[in-house]
Design brief:
Elements (H helix, E strand, L loop, with lengths): L2 H6 L2 H9 L5 H8 L7 H21 L11 H8 L6 H26 L5 H8 L5 H10 L12 H25 L4 H4 L6 E3 L2 E7 L3 H4 L2 E5 L5 E5 L4 H31 L1 H27 L5 E3 L4 E6 L12 E5 L5 E5 L6 H16 L11 E3 L3 E5 L12 H15 L4 E5 L8 H17 L3 E6 L7 H4 L3 E9 L4 E8 L7 H7 L4 H10 L2 H88 L5 H14 L24 E4 L4 E8 L4 E6 L2 E6 L3 E5 L22 E3 L5 H17 L4 E5 L6 H12 L3 E6 L9 E6 L1
Parallel strand pairs: 5-9, 8-12, 8-13, 10-11, 11-12, 20-21
Antiparallel strand pairs: 1-2, 2-4, 3-4, 6-7, 13-14, 15-16, 15-19, 16-17, 17-18, 21-23, 22-23
Helix pairs in contact: 3-13, 4-13, 5-12, 5-13, 6-7, 6-8, 6-13, 8-12, 9-12, 20-21, 22-23
C-alpha cells in the first residue's frame, strides 16, 4: 500500500486512536507496525480474530491484560550469561503471571461453550512456568527487594546486620544522652556517613571522642565522627553487609540461570501476549466506534450502510449509505467546493484500509466490503514550494503515478479532479482521466466542481452521479450523500438569502445559458423527488413494520387461544375419566355388599335394602356438567351486503366485508388480515352510509391500534412536536397508562423541546429518561393520567 495514500487518508490517526486501547508496550509495538493486508484469506482471518475478541469484550467487558511487560531483552541477556536485576526478575514473574491468567481466561470461556477457535489456539501456545514464577516471587518482593526468605544464609546474615546496627545505635545514643552531649555535640542525633554510623561533634571537641572523621559541615564547625568505641562494631557491620551483597549476587545469578533455561518458552509466551494485547485493543476500538464486522468478498464490490468517518466525533458525524462495484463502478460527486465531498472520499478510503487491517469499521451490520490490491488517493492541497510545483502540477504528478499502476484490482480516489487550471481544459482533462481508469476496470470515486462532469454519469455505463446535500435555508451542507443526483450550484439562492438585490440576481441569471438553467432546474426537481421518495418509503416501511407487528401479535393470540382450548379439553377428559373410574369403584362396592347380604341372610334381600342399593347405584353414575346454553331469541336470518361492518365471533374482532366467496362464506378484512368467514360466525353491525359525504372528525377508541412508542428520529422540530401532540391524543383514547417517545441523543434540541412540551400537557402525569434497557437518554418514558 502506497505510503502517500496512508498519509492523505490519515491512517496514522486511526492507529493513534488504537494506541489508546493497548495495555503494554508489546501491543503498542504491534499497532506501530500495523499495515493493511492485500491477501484476501489473511484479511478474512484477521476479521474473524477481531470478531472473536469483540465477542469476549461484549460478554466479559474486558480481558485480563494487566501485568505484561516487554521482557525480551532481559531474557536474551540471561541467555548469554548476564545477571538480571531484581526489578527485571519481577517484570519476568509478572509477565508469566499475565500469560497464565490469559490462558485460564480463554479456556474458561471455551468451557462455558463459547466458540473462540482462534483465541483458543493462541491460548494453547502459552506454557505456564509456575515453578519459575514461584521461585522468583519467593526470593524477590513486589518492590524489587530481595527477601530474607531467598535463602537461610541471607536470613542469618541479615540477622547479624540488624544485631550489629542495634548495638552501634545503643552505644551512640548513650553518647548523645550524656551530660556533656549538649555542649560538645551540634545535635543529639545518630546519622550515617560513608555507610558508617557517626555523631555530629563540634570542631573544638573533636579530640574528646577520638575515632575517625568521615565528613564535616559546610561551615566546618561540625565534624561527623565515628567514635573509637564503635569502630570495631562498624567494621563488623560492613563485613556483614559485604556477605549480604555476595549472597544476593549468588541468588540473582541462580534465578537468571533459571530464566535462561526457560528462555524459549518465556519468549513464546511474550509473543502470544503481544498478539492478545493487539487483538483486544482492536476489539475495544471497535466498541468505541460502535463498529461492526463487514462481510468480505473478492469481487471488488462494497456496500457500506450508514458509514461514518472514524475520526469525526460520533455525535456530529453524518452517516451515509455508499455502494460501489455492482450497478456502477464509478461515482462522480459534483457540486460546489463546500459540502463535505472530501469527507465522503476519506470515509470510503479509511473503511477499506481499516477492514484490510483487521479492524472492524464504523458501519451498520450487513455491510459488505472487498479487498483491493492497491488503494490510490489524490486528496488535498499538494502544492510543493521545495519542488517549485503549483497545486495543479503536484496533483498531476500524483495522477501520472496512479495511471501507471492502477488496474482492475485498485480503488482510485480523486479529490477536485482537474482543479487549479483553466476550467474548460481542466474539465476535459478530468473526463479523460476518468475514462482511463474506468476502462482499466478500477473502482473510482471522484469529486469535482466542474458542471461539465454532471453529464458524465449519463453518457457512460456503470457510472453514476452523486452530490452532497446543501441546505439553502441554513447556508450550510448537511453532509448527506445523494447517490444518483448531480450537484448543483446554489450561488443564486445563497446570494438571495444573504441580501443581494433581486435585480442583480435576475441580471446574473440572464448571463447564464438557457441549457444551464434547464439542467439546474432538472437537478432541483430530482433532489425534491428523491426526498419525497425517501420520505414516502420511510412511512411505508414504518407501516410495514407496524403491520408485521400486528400480524405477529394476532398469530400469537390465536396460538394462545388454541393452546388454552386444548388444555381445557384435556382437563375435561381427565376429570371425566376420574369420575367414571370413581363410579365404577362405587358400583363394584355396592354389588359386593348385595352379594354379602344375600349370602349372610340366606334369604331374599328386603325391598327397602334393594331400594337403598339402587339409589346408591344411581348416585354413582357420573353427572357430566353440561354447558348452559344461552337462551337466545330466534334471530331473523341476517342479510349481509358488500362493505358491511361485522363482528367476527370466533375472534371477537371487527371487520369489513370485501367479497362473497360462496353462498355461506365471505372474505372479511380484519385489520391487515384478510380471511374467509362463514355467515353463522358473523354478527352484523352496520352498513356503509350512502348519504352525502361530509368531513367529520375521526374519533379513535380502544379498538384502534396505537403503538406503545413514537419514533421522532430524523424529524424536523416543528413536525416532531405536531406528531407528539397527535400521538398523546391517540394514546389517551387507547387508555394507555405509559408510552415511550424516541427522540435520540443528537444535539439534545429535539429532546429538550419534547420534554418542554410534556411539562405543559395537562394529560401528562410525569416523565423520565429511559433505563439502560429502554434506550437511555435517547428515550423519554411518559406516564399518562
Amino acid at each position: 500500500m502506497l505510503e502517500r495514500t496512508l498519509r492523505v487518508l490519515e491512517y496514522d490517526k486511526v492507529k493513534e486512536q488504537l494506541f489508546e486501547h493497548t495495555s503494554s508496550s508489546l501491543g503498542r509495538e504491534k499497532v506501530r507496525k500495523l499495515q493493511p493486508s492485500i491477501d484476501f484469506e489473511e484479511v478474512v482471518h484477521l476479521q474473524e480474530t477481531t470478531d472473536e475478541a469483540v465477542t469476549v469484550i461484549r460478554l466479559k467487558g474486558n480481558a485480563p491484560m494487566g501485568g505484561a511487560f516487554d521482557i525480551r531483552m532481559h531474557v536474551k541477556r540471561a541467555q548469554i550469561g548476564g545477571v538480571l536485576s531484581p526489578q527485571e526478575l519481577v517484570d519476568i514473574s509478572s509477565t508469566m503471571y499475565a500469560s497464565r491468567q490469559m490462558k485460564r481466561f480463554i479456556e474458561s470461556m471455551v468451557e462455558d461453550e463459547h466458540e473462540l477457535p482462534i483465541l483458543e489456539g493462541f491460548a494453547g501456545r502459552i506454557e505456564p512456568l509456575n515453578h519459575l514464577e514461584r521461585n522468583i516471587n519467593s526470593c524477590i518482593g513486589d518492590g524489587g527487594e530481595v527477601l530474607d526468605s531467598a535463602s537461610e544464609k541471607l536470613r542469618s546474615i541479615r540477622q547479624q546486620i540488624r544485631g550489629a546496627e542495634s548495638r552501634i545505635r545503643e552505644k551512640l545514643e548513650n553518647l548523645t544522652r550524656s551530660s556533656n552531649a549538649s555542649k560538645m555535640l551540634s545535635d543529639a542525633i545518630v546519622t550515617i556517613r560513608n555507610e558508617r554510623y557517626v555523631i555530629p561533634v563540634k570542631q573544638e571537641y573533636r579530640h574528646v571522642y577520638g575515632g575517625i572523621v568521615h565528613d564535616q559541615s559546610a561551615s566546618g564547625q561540625t565534624l561527623f565522627i565515628e567514635p573509637q568505641s564503635v569502630v570495631d562494631l562498624n567494621n563488623q557491620l560492613q563485613e556483614a553487609k559485604v556477605k549480604e551483597k555476595q549472597e544476593i549476587e549468588r541468588i540473582l545469578i541462580e534465578l537468571s540461570a533459571a530464566v535462561a533455561t526457560e528462555a524459549d518458552i518465556i519468549l513464546e509466551n511474550v509473543e502470544v501476549l503481544a498478539e492478545f494485547d493487539f487483538i483486544f485493543a482492536k476489539a475495544l476500538y471497535a466498541k468505541r466506534l460502535k463498529a461492526s464486522k463487514p462481510k468480505l468478498n473478492n469481487n471488488r464490490y462494497m456496500k457500506l450502510l450508514k458509514a461514518r468517518h472514524p475520526l469525526i466525533a460520533q455525535d456530529i458525524v453524518v452517516p451515509n449509505d455508499i455502494e460501489l462495484g455492482e450497478d456502477f463502478t464509478t461515482i462522480v460527486i459534483t457540486g460546489p467546493n463546500t459540502g463535505g465531498k472530501t469527507v465522503t472520499l476519506k470515509t470510503i478510503g479509511l473503511c477499506v484500509l481499516m477492514a484490510q487491517s483487521g479492524l472492524q469499521i464504523p458501519v451498520l451490520d450487513g455491510s459488505e466490503i472487498c479487498v483491493f490490491k492497491q488503494v490510490f488517493a489524490d486528496i488535498g492541497d499538494e502544492q510543493s514550494i521545495e519542488q517549485s510545483l503549483s497545486t495543479f502540477s503536484s496533483h498531476m504528478v500524483n495522477i501520472v503515478d496512479i495511471l501507471e499502476q492502477a488496474d482492475f484490482e485498485s480503488l482510485v480516489m480523486f479529490d477536485e479532479l482537474g482543479a487549479g487550471t483553466d476550467p474548460q481544459e481542466g474539465a476535459a482533462l478530468a473526463i479523460s482521466i476518468l475514462d482511463e481508469v474506468y476502462h482499466r476496470g478500477a473502482r473510482v470515486v471522484a469529486t469535482t466542481h466542474y458542471p461539465e462532469l454532471k453529464a458524465y454519469g449519463y453518457n457512460r455505463e456503470k457510472v453514476i452521479n452523486a452530490s452532497v446535500e446543501f441546505d439553502v435555508n441554513t447556508l450550510s451542507p448537511t453532509y448527506r450523500l445523494l447517490i444518483g443526483v448531480p450537484g448543483r450550484s446554489n450561488a443564486f439562492e445563497i446570494s438571495k438569502r444573504l441580501g443581494l438585490s433581486e435585480r442583480v440576481i435576475d441580471r446574473a441569471r440572464s448571463h447564464t445559458s438557457s441549457e444551464a438553467n434547464k439542467v439546474e432546474n432538472m437537478i432541483a426537481k430530482l433532489e425534491e423527488s428523491k426526498k419525497n421518495a425517501e420520505r414516502e418509503w420511510k412511512e411505508a416501511e414504518e407501516l410495514r413494520k407496524e403491520s408485521e407487528k400486528l400480524h405477529k401479535e394476532l398469530q400469537r393470540q390465536i396460538l394462545e387461544f388454541n393452546e388454552q382450548r386444548d388444555k381445557m379439553f384435556e382437563e375435561a377428559e381427565r376429570k371425566a375419566e376420574e369420575k367414571v373410574e370413581q363410579s365404577k369403584k362405587e358400583a363394584e362396592s355396592i354389588i359386593r355388599e348385595l352379594r354379602h347380604l344375600r349370602k349372610e341372610q340366606l334369604v331374599n334381600v328386603k325391598e327397602h335394602e334393594l331400594i337403598e342399593a339402587k339409589s346408591r347405584l344411581e348416585g354413582a353414575v357420573p353427572k357430566l356438567v353440561e354447558k348452559k346454553k344461552a337462551v337466545t331469541e330466534a334471530k331473523p336470518k341476517q342479510t349481509f351486503r358488500l362493505g358491511d361492518e361485522v363482528k367476527v365471533l370466533t375472534f371477537g374482532q371487527k371487520g369489513q366485508l370485501l367479497e362473497k366467496v360462496t353462498d355461506t362464506e365471505w372474505q372479511v378484512q380484519i385489520g391487515i388480515l384478510k380471511m374467509k368467514v362463514k355467515e353463522k360466525d358473523m354478527e352484523y353491525i352496520s352498513s356503509p352510509k350512502q348519504t352525502e359525504k361530509k368531513a367529520l372528525a375521526t374519533v379513535k377508541g380502544k379498538d384502534y391500534h396505537v403503538s406503545l412508542e413514537l419514533d421522532l428520529r430524523g424529524e424536523r422540530y416543528e413536525d416532531a412536536l405536531h406528531r407528539v401532540e397527535k400521538y398523546i391524543d391517540d394514546a389517551l383514547l387507547a387508555s394507555y397508562p405509559r408510552i415511550s417517545i424516541i427522540h435520540g441523543k443528537g444535539t439534545g434540541a429535539l429532546r429538550q423541546g419534547v420534554q418542554e412540551y410534556l411539562k405543559k400537557h395537562r394529560a401528562v402525569k410525569s416523565f423520565r429518561y429511559g433505563d439502560i434497557g429502554e434506550g437511555g437518554l435517547g428515550v423519554t418514558v411518559v406516564e399518562l393520567k
